[in-house]
Amino acid sequence: MAEVSLRKLRKTYGPVVAVEGVDLEIAKGELIVLLGPSGCGKSTTLRMVAGLETISDGKLHIGGRDVTALEPKDRDIAMVFQNYALYPHKTIRGNMSFGLKMRGTDTAEITKRVDAAAEMLDITHLLDRKPGQLSGGQMQRVALGRALVRDPAVFLLDEPLSNLDAKLRSRMREEIALLQRRIGKAMLYVTHDQTEAMTLADRIVIMRDGRVQQIGSPLEVYDRPANAFVAGFIGSPEMNLIDADLADGRLVLGEGVSLPAPSGLTRREGRVTVGMRPEAIAPAGEGLPFTIRGIEQLGSQTLFIGELAGRRLRVMTGRRDDVALGSGMRIAVPEAAIHLFDRESGERLTTGR
Amino acid sequence: MTRWLLPGFLGVGVLATLLLIVGPALYAVSLSFYDMPSLTADPVWVGFAKYAQVLASAAFWNALWNGIVYAGLAIVLQVVLGIGFALLLNQNFIGRSLLRGLAFLPYLLPTVVAVLVFKWMVDGSLGIVTILMDDWGLPPIYWFETETASMVSVIMISVWLWTPFVTTTFLAGLQTVPGQLYEAARVDGAGPIRQFFHVTLPSLRPILTVIILLRGVWMFNKFDVVWLATGGGPLGATEHLPVLSYREAFALYDIGSGAAIATLSFFVLMVAVAIYFRVFPMEQGK
């Protein structure tokens, strides 16, 4: 039985549709990441689950109860806000206790729970301070702690790491993952950062223009993106997406440049978009002609930016060849690395695998 | 050139302050040590005699008490009503900007206009309030004739005139409170009233501290409302220190006593402000 279930959740502002028919089941202990560019409706969806936005249409169940019309406090949720939203005039202990106090929990129990959460997050020494005296990372922990003491059915996190610097972000990411496994609660996590989504999620929900594009495990969405949008959004560096014509079992990329079409296609010909991940393309003795226009050294990898049949293409390799700009090389694209999408609808064309 | 620019600007300011504020103030204080039966008479040094005379008079203590009652009640009502209106004007409704503008209007009105209009409205024979109350069969209120009623009247006029200041300042402050704090409070289970006491009020505490201080000082020194509405009457029921000081100096031509009252008033206010700063420190220790 799902801990949280969103059924055809919809949000409209007048004639504008912000979220259209989101269906999602979250199991106990599962970490779901809502991923998408800004304005895709992911935050609105989270806020509908929180009860901070009214639900225009559809049903929301948490812990088996219909909470569609309930106030946030009655939904058995806790939320971590992007800017932490700590009460600036209260001490850290005051911040963490407030929710329990409002519920009339008795003082001894509050102290016990706050102390336990503080210990878990290693913020015991901060309990008597005010938020203004804390660093960003510490405030983030307090915000997590405030949610933790409530012991809700589901944790809602709205871009919780976006205000931290890169180094701290990756550390907090690990800690959130550990914490979530430890407490074993359902978690709904909003981010626009695909790395965060890939590393944290049990399942990723990718959204665009208020609609769900694909729901799947990190590797599922990476290996089998449902459409060209998901393909371009997941993965770093981005997948190469190149227009091509499908005819006679070949993908024609340009004058005299073509690839054999992969098997298992749902159609034989037409205008398509070819997707190739930079890391799946390899320099080879023979293959397609590739002209190098730029080189980015990443240390462990080298990213070549260049042209294939006049189209921009990026190739990532472990090699560290000293190659001159403007020079050519040959590249090979394994059949398994080719993703094919309809150019108009963007839908995936390959079946199987 | 630039070497003299900064001291130059500073010098003009210092000079103007000395000439227009410090000088007259010191002169006024110095007058309190002289007996001066008219504006043209030669002053005679009497030391602290005027202070002794003033402190021994019942009129001074009556005026001090009246001033505390007037200023105290006027501030409390202005702040409570001002915050209430600010919270209402902060809600979303049609015509909000219009109403926000209108709410500020009384503050722009000259005191004399407000007082005279109020007096006409409650005039014993022609006032609209009097006539309406008579039509509805209500007993007449003697707005400026009984002691309590006249105090209530001057307080009412003051509250009407200066509540907009509190409303506008508080409303501006409300815009600076991050919306996420209210959302966090909602998730934490705080209703509108608890949100006010746990989020709004603590966030606006610094603003409120300044508002109360400013309004307090202004109300304690406010001369025109009382003078225009009641002249301190009836029987000294609304006479506070500014009015008493003015009456002594310019109606009874005892310039020394008038100056002594003004000086004492200044010290009373200074002590009050010092205590206020103790109780409500401007900068909260982090």
Automatic annotation (TrEMBL), chain A:
Principal cellular location given in the protein's record: membrane
CDD domains assigned to the protein according to its UniProt record, in alphabetical order: ABC_MalK_N
Keywords assigned: ATP-binding, Nucleotide-binding, Transport
GO cellular-component term (any): ATP-binding cassette (ABC) transporter complex, substrate-binding subunit-containing
Any one GO molecular function term: ABC-type transporter activity
UniProt topology in membrane: Peripheral membrane protein
ABC transporter domain: residues covered: 4-234
InterPro entries: AAA+_ATPase, ABC_transporter-like_ATP-bd, ABC_transporter-like_CS, ABC_transpr_MalK-like, ABC_transpr_MalK/UgpC-like, Mo/tungstate-bd_C_term_dom, NA-bd_OB-fold, OB_MalK-like
Domain of life (superkingdom): Bacteria
Location of this chain's protein in the cell: Cell inner membrane
Gene3D superfamilies from the UniProt entry: 2.40.50.100, Nucleic acid-binding proteins, P-loop containing nucleotide triphosphate hydrolases
Pfam family, any one: OB_MalK
KW ATP-binding (keyword) present: yes
Biological-process GO terms, alphabetical: carbohydrate transport
Keyword Transferase included in the entry's annotation: no
Signal peptide: none
Similarity field: Belongs to the ABC transporter superfamily.
NCBIfam families: PRK11650.1 (NF008653)
Name of the protein described by the UniProt record: Carbohydrate ABC transporter ATP-binding protein (CUT1 family)
Organism per entry: Shinella granuli
TrEMBL record, chain B:
Keywords: Cell membrane, Membrane, Sugar transport, Transmembrane, Transmembrane helix, Transport
Domain of life: Bacteria
InterPro entries: MetI-like, MetI-like_sf
Transmembrane segments: 68-89, 101-121, 196-218, 255-277
Any one Pfam family match given in the protein's UniProt record, by short name: BPD_transp_1
All copies of domain ABC transmembrane type-1, residue ranges: 64-276
Subcellular compartments: Cell membrane
Protein name, entry field: Multiple sugar transport system permease protein
Organism lineage: Bacteria, Pseudomonadati, Pseudomonadota, Alphaproteobacteria, Hyphomicrobiales
